[in-house]
Amino acid sequence: MTTDVITRPARTPVGGGPPPGQARRPALDALDRLESEAIHILRDVAGHAARPALLYSGGKDSAVLLHIARKAFWPAPVPFPLLHVDTGHNFPDVIAYRDAQAAAIGADLLVARVEDSIARGTVRLARATDSRNAAQAVTLLEAIEEHGFDALFGGARRDEEKSRAKERIVSHRDSFGQWNPKAQRPELWNLYNARVQPGEHVRVFPLSNWTERDVWSYIAREAIPLPAIYFAHPRAVVRRGGLLVPVTDLTPPLPGETVETLSVRFRTVGDITCTCPVASTATDLAAIIDETDLADVSERGATRLDDQASEAAMERRKREGYF
């Protein structure tokens, strides 16, 4: 007679400890969980998309997103190009950082220029010094059509401003590049639908659930380099509309304004004509995190001239293809 031998798995001791002989796994902290979610989103959508790209400006959020993308596909290189819509009015040190970081990892950096859209006549501005921030939508849609992109990863977060808070993590755009906030796809149980018809695409936001503090804490933990303008430095500014406007050739002082040199830093960076610094003495990441804990206005609300527009105006921009 044979006897069946049934091997039972070791029982977990009362109290939740590991089975005998098995080491306890370290608990995931909040940043680990956010990073894991972002990696899952990157891998999931990249597996469905035929031609994805990562929007990369050299700003802090896109720097974090690129860092996580490298982790997601390591040891292989990032399997899609980087795309930057360059207004031609960007801070020079941010552009230098963008190029250096892309070269350092051997990434394929595609630069779509608003200048080219102006030359084609698809973007028209009243004056050469006008803000080109909103015009980026046209240049972006032209780049999507030219390269056939069907998924664009971006570093936008829901806590930045109200219209971004309405976005799904995987946000569908129709064949005209437009977004309909009332016809978004459900995302139950972390299941994402990145399928599109020819000519359509999705915008994908793996950092949707992050806060500004999460971003800075992750930058500190992962030792991600950033452009120097994110840290406190002396800069000539004028006070305008409750903001500190940097004095540049594109943003000269208006009659009656007084130029001051203050210690400032940028919480977010973009087109010079609409990006403002904040007064700050934070020269390192620990001090920036401390300042972030005390901030009562989002970085875009406190530093973007164009984001002083109404929620309806910002949503209209997004419907038309804006980031």
Offer a few descriptive terms.
323 residues; alpha/beta; Rossmann fold; 6-stranded mixed β-sheet; 4-stranded antiparallel β-sheet; 10 helices; 10 strands; 14% strand; globular; disordered N terminus
Walkthrough of the structure:
The protein is of the alpha/beta class and 323 residues long. Helix content is 32%, strand content 14%. The chain has 2 domains: 30-212 and 313-319, 3-Layer(aba) Sandwich (Rossmann fold); 228-307, no CATH class. Strand 2 (82-86), helix 3 and strand 3 form a beta-alpha-beta unit. It is built from 10 helices and 10 strands. It is globular, with a radius of gyration of 23 Å. The chain starts with 29 loop residues before the first helix and ends with a helix. Helix 1 crosses helix 2 and helix 7 (212-222) packs antiparallel against helix 8. It has a 6-stranded mixed sheet.
